[in-house]
Design goal:
Blueprint (H helix, E strand, L loop, with lengths): L13 E4 L12 H10 L3 E8 L5 E3 L20 H5 L19 H10 L6 E6 L12 H12 L5 E5 L2 H10 L5 E5 L8 H8 L3 E4 L6 H9 L3 E4 L5 H10 L8 E4 L2 H9 L3
Parallel strand pairs: 1-2, 1-9, 2-4, 4-5, 5-6, 6-7, 7-8, 8-9
Antiparallel strand pairs: 2-3
């Protein structure tokens, strides 16, 4: 059942910081997540891969080339090799020395932030042509969550829909979603969500319309959309009905803009 939005800010809209707060600090670094926590958003989205020695780390690309001063595929480098890389200077010299965190380190950072309601949105990454590598990435992610006592503070999603379905099978209590981009859209989103046994639909914001929201919400399926950086797009999505069903969310590189929108919404 949906809740109509009139003059008030939508009651169920989760404000989520993309890759920590990628517009404000180096993406997927401790600095970015500290910024997100300090802003008071509800959650932070992040990307997970495994190193050569099978440690789960927080990094978006298949390689370290774009975001660090190193080179090479994440899966070909050990944790020790990745930890030597500077993940901050390419964003700004003020962030020199930022490192690629492990999932365990990031959970510790969130716990230290002192907000027990703050959640993490975990994107399980895969590379074109190497989907599901390593084959036990999902199990390794869940092992860290269990060891850290963090299972009840996450949701998961993936462009590799088989991985999203696998996460849901392995951990039925954790909400899981299908990431969908502009180039590959299922003909029937409701059927796609049902077929994979997951909970929510996560399309690029350009794909979200009032009709799509009515269809998905009518089926009891939440929508978490990305990466919404323009306040005008944020307003459009809210007016279309985003945030009227529990589980709805909006992900942004600039979580400060989301916070300001909620604070000054009219």
């Amino acid at each position: 059942m949906t809740v109509e939005t009139t003059s008030g800010f939508p009651p169920y809209l989760s404000l989520q910081a993309h890759r920590g707060a990628a517009g404000l600090a180096p993406e997927n670094t401790p600095a970015a997540f500290r910024a997100a926590i300090a802003l008071g958003v509800d959650a932070a989205e992040l990307d997970l891969q495994a190193t050569k020695d099978r440690v789960v780390v927080v990094i978006h690309d298949d390689t370290v080339d774009r975001t660090t001063d190193g080179r090479g595929r994440v899966g070909d480098l050990t944790l020790a090799e990745i930890k030597r890389l500077d993940a901050g200077s390419k964003f700004d010299a003020a962030f020199c020395g930022e490192r690629v965190p492990t999932l365990r380190e990031l959970i510790d950072l969130v716990k230290a932030g002192g907000n027990p309601q703050f959640r993490l949105n975990l994107e399980i990454k895969f590379a074109e042509g190497r989907a599901g590598q390593p084959p036990d990435l999902e199990e390794r992610v869940l092992a860290v969550l269990r060891e850290c006592g963090f299972l009840d503070r996450v949701i998961t999603q993936s462009f590799h829909h088989a991985s999203a379905a696998k996460m849901k099978r392995l951990a039925p209590g954790i909400p899981a979603g299908l990431l969908v981009g502009q180039r590959r859209q299922p003909a029937d989103p409701v059927t796609a969500v049902r077929r994979h046994g997951v909970d929510y639909y996560a399309p690029h914001h350009s794909l979200v319309t009032s009709d799509l929201l009515r269809m998905l919400h009518g089926a009891g399926i939440a929508v978490v959309t990305w990466t919404v950086n323009d306040p005008a797009d944020m307003r459009r999505l809210i007016i279309a009905g985003l945030g009227t069903l529990p589980g709805d969310g909006i992900i942004s590189d600039f979580p400060d803009r989301l916070v300001n929108l909620r604070k000054f919404w009219k």
